[in-house]
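Note to self: the last two entries modelled the partners one at a time, which told us nothing about the interface. This time every component goes in together.
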Amino acid sequence: MNRLSRAKRSPASGLWKDGLKNAKMQRNLFLLLALTPAFGGYLLFTLYPNMLSVYYSLLNWNGISEPEFVGLSNFVTLFQDKYVWRALLNNLFYMATVPIAVISISLLLGYLLANKGYKGTSFFKVLFFFPNVLSTIVIALLWTFIYDGSFGLLNDFLRLLGVPIGNFYWLGEARTALAAIVPPYVWGGVGLYVIIFMNAMTTIPKSLYESAILEGARHMTILFRITIPLIMPIVRISALFLILGTLKGFEKQLILTNGGPAGATDVVGLYIFNLAFGTENHNYGYASAVGMLLFVILVTAKLLMDKYMPDRSVEY
Amino acid sequence: MREKRTIIDVVWWVLLIAWSMAILFPLLWVFYQSLRSNPSFFQDVWALPESLNWMNYKNAWIKYGIGNAMLNTLYYVGVSLVLGTFLTTINAYALTRIQFKGRKLMWALIMLSLFLPGINALIPQYVLMRELHLTNSLTGLILLDSLGENVFFLMLLGGFMRSLPKELEESGFLDGASIFQVFMRIIFPLSIPGIVTVAIFKFLGLYNNFLGPFIYLSDQSKYTIGVSMYAANQMMQYTSDWVTMFAGVMIAMVPSIIMFMFFQRWIMEGATLGAVKG
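The predicted structure of the combined assembly is written out below.
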């Protein structure tokens, strides 16, 4: 396009040439002014720190004293650090529970809203989406109120039903705290996927459903045999996002339990965060080494999912 | 697809109501308790309030320094939003509608960000900010959050701008307008719908940003609303002032509720573009 317009103007008199040179200078000035702040900021605040973190992982440094180069010794420590593996195991737990819960609830709700034509569908849609606009801190605080032992909503309910729960602190006991963090993630995440799946479902031709119904198929059959296979590519991408998100995410754990009690809810992201910014001794070098491990896991997870998750785009 | 309603429909209906209740009930519960007094709350959480204690909101406002925190949030979110949205728009224009040397390389470098988990950069970023004397400063946080590139926003706006006919710019140039004028007078106004979507998501992202302010702001007088609510909750262990805390959380929710009320359609449509919480 540009080449064409330049060619058109090429039989240039001196005046044309001056004008062209002027326009070119103007364009370059525009590009310089337009791109420098944002792209420069990107290089400075995103790319450069990411590359630097590789170097940091080879240091023994608490952030204040003189950094000491220690080679790969952080990585040796890393493989012997049982806290890292405990955190990773917790990550695995969330990876297995949160995406499955979010996707199955969203698929069911999305299917009902997209296909059943109930009254109030648009109201449900809006209501279901609402938690997605709330901030992490508000959602997390809401759930600390729910889980509180003495006055929490959950125990109030159980007492009302006559369950002798006493003052059980759901987030304070190692055997419940891990699982108790799943509902806040699900509560805050479902609405977005309901909308995504609903949009995908409305693109499926109605005729497919009609013939199935004529043949006497039931809704569950239709959902599992027609709807889900047809929107599989979108389910797959959603799963990818959710799995990578739970691998990286740690804000809710930070606010709800800060990894406690006794590390029962610690995840890798939170472990790194506390090594670098926590209340105890800081270790920037070791934290960066754990970060490198997380990076490798994330990239591997992504590649594995690309390779092994069914990616049959169905024709209809 | 009209079909006969059967008994199973009752089950589905109950499911929809159940999820609605799961969302609404905790919110309404907190709102309801925020209007009670501590003694009556401790005595019986289900009791009806004798009177509505709107004073709790005033107390929360003063006790947690919400007024100041809201001003800080307004400054941080407002400036980052305007600056960041403008930069994203002008970048989208430069990177999609102008051919220049190095453009492909820039795109490739920007795409690289999709593979980088944010957490690895946190520490070096902090050290860098410290060297630039930008820690414990709202302005520093603004620079950190508005100078940068975001693949999703660039693609969203770039896609929008690509759909504008080339003749618009050319007629502008023929009329003797400079490229700056063409951008400000032609491209910018025509891209408003895309810009609004980007701005809404930037707002939500900035208002909901907890980690950045939490890491970088150490003076209480500089806290944003999220960090001040976090600090208030940490204090709860000692004060047990529940009803005021509930009122505080309700106040922190108000900006999100207002945004959602006004921009509900934009938000729900934009969210499916994959631009949110990427």
